[in-house]
Amino acid sequence: MNKIIKAAGLLALVPLSGVLAADKPAAPRASIPFVNFGGIRDWQADGDKGLWVEDAHRQWYYADLVGPCVGLDFAYSIVFDAQPMDTLDRFSSVILPGWGRCYFNSFAVSDGPPAHKSDEAADATRG
Hints:
The protein is α+β, with helices and mostly antiparallel strands. It has a domain of 83 residues. The strands form two sheets. Strands 2-3-4-8-7-5 form a six-stranded antiparallel β-sheet, with no helix packed on it.
């Protein structure tokens, strides 16, 4: 038993920062501040699994949801719950009036929603 305690003590002395940290730097945490004061410009559902959110500076983000969010793919309006700091981030959620709340699994910078074929055709005809 003495050997087990000594081995555990030696492991406690090894710094875990080098062991756990990969060579890849951590991605910055994405967030949109001032949600209730015009921080969000637009949003678009990704079916019932997530949504793209555009901030006031035209930067897109993608919110992956914990599970299917029933009603999101055909909702006309949603409420962003960015409490308590009025900042939309990975701890936020959306509320669908009449349906319920859907929690974010992750929130990251994105290129935005894919262009619709009708949008691409209109751009081609404009020249």
